[in-house]
Design brief:
binds zinc ion, 12 helices, Nucleotidyltransferase, domain 5, 2 domains, alpha/beta, five-stranded mixed β-sheet, about 350 residues, binds 5'-O-[(R)-(carboxyoxy)(hydroxy)phosphoryl]adenosine
């Protein structure tokens, strides 16, 4: 762990170009000292993947190839900078879609080599956690962080900037994946999370009592497959009986069940560890009901509840540049052997403990 007091002037003044291409956003950002965003460009491929009802990996890779240079150019332009002003090149190395990751990793390696700049490969989930340092410049570890994205549901105790203890995870579907699947089942389409969030605002969260999955003897783990099946059964039963169901009520009730599972475990973890700060991160942390319930439950216990601005919840490169800042200060340097690591686990780099 680096000693904040021992940082040199140069280390405190680092401008990092971040690159993110792990899924369906091609993104580049310039961030100073891990917390000050000078530019944040995101080229979303959502419109194209929507035609297929989900992300098509081969299309994602091709679009990253087409867009990445333009996105980086725009990020530098918006920051009012050239490559000479950049101290470090940072890139998402995993987890994610292998072909998509390779585009960003290859681009970053080429830039670092051609410009003689240091290269730092970043864990995507650590990037999501770091998004909170951007929105909350005063935030310092330790704290508890719930990371909820399309592919991951992790409960982590952040002991230090690079010291993560993974205490809970999903046993089956990720929270975002469950949102997307239920949204598709009720005909809201892709991407389901934000659409379901919106539809739920008109509904009654207590209209249908859906199950809250428990993982026996694992107080911090999550399970959503039972809930997903219960929702699908509810829809099928209604169809068989010829009953019409209120999409708003169904969405609100489902969302309430997911959010309650997430909040209960996160708050329990913070209480048991004796930490007074709870953060949420990842695409699902943009969810209105999750933010509201987490805030309420934290306030009741005298805890602080933090979440990133919506633009830093979903995939972006500013969070990658932010995480890279702490990696760089801790001595992390990558080289031409850096590779895409599609199945990278939280706990497989840095000084994590599991
Ligand atoms: O972090 P992210 O952009 O990509 C991954 O790393 O997976 O998360 C995307 C996920 C999707 O499943 C999307 O439906 C979900 O985040 N999401 C939401 C909301 N906004 C995005 N889920 C619920 N409510 C939202 N408002
Ligand atoms: Zn993500």
């Amino acid at each position: 762990m680096y000693n904040v007091n021992a940082m040199t002037d140069k280390e405190q003044n680092l401008t990092i170009l971040g690159i993110e291409s792990s899924c369906d956003e091609t993104a580049a950002a310039v961030v100073r000292n891990g917390r000050e965003v000078l530019s944040n460009i995101i080229s979303s491929q959502i419109d194209i993947h929507t035609l297929y009802g989900g992300v098509v990996p081969e299309i994602a890779s091709r679009l990253h190839c087409e867009n990445i240079n333009g996105v980086i150019r725009l990020a530098l332009k918006e920051a009012g900078m050239g490559f000479d002003d950049i101290d470090v090149i940072a890139v998402t190395k995993g987890p994610g879609l292998v072909g998509a990751l390779l585009v960003g990793v290859s681009e970053a390696k080429a830039l670092a080599y051609a410009l003689h700049k240091p290269l730092v490969g970043v864990h995507h989930i650590e990037g999501h956690i770091a998004a909170n340092y951007i929105t909350h410049p005063g935030l310092k570890p330790p704290y508890v962080c719930l990371v909820v994205s399309g592919g991951h549901t992790h409960l982590a105790v952040v002991h230090g900037y690079r010291d993560f203890e993974l205490v809970g995870r999903t046993m089956d579907d990720a929270a975002g994946e469950t949102f997307d699947k239920v949204a598709r089942a009720v005909g809201l389409g892709y991407p389901g999370g934000p659409k379901l969030d919106k539809a739920a605002r008109e509904g009654d969260p207590h209209a249908i009592e859906f199950p809250r999955g428990e993982v026996r003897d694992h107080p911090y783990d999550f399970t959503f497959s039972g809930l997903k099946s219960a929702v699908l059964n509810h829809i099928n039963m209604a169809q068989m009986k010829g009953e019409t169901i209120s999409t708003a009520d169904l969405c609100a009730s489902f969302q309430n069940a997911v959010v309650e599972s997430l909040v209960t475990r996160t708050v329990r973890c913070a209480e048991n560890y004796g930490y007074h700060t709870v953060a949420i991160a990842g695409g699902v942390s943009a969810n209105t009901a999750l933010r509201r319930m987490m805030l309420e439950e934290c306030e009741k216990r005298g805890m602080e509840c933090l979440y990133p601005e919506p633009v830093f919840c979903t995939d972006n490169a500013a969070m990658i540049a932010s995480a890279a800042y702490f990696e760089y200060l801790d001595g992390v340097r990558d080289d031409a052997f850096l590779n895409a690591q599609p199945n990278l686990k939280l706990g497989s780099t840095g000084s994590h403990r599991i």
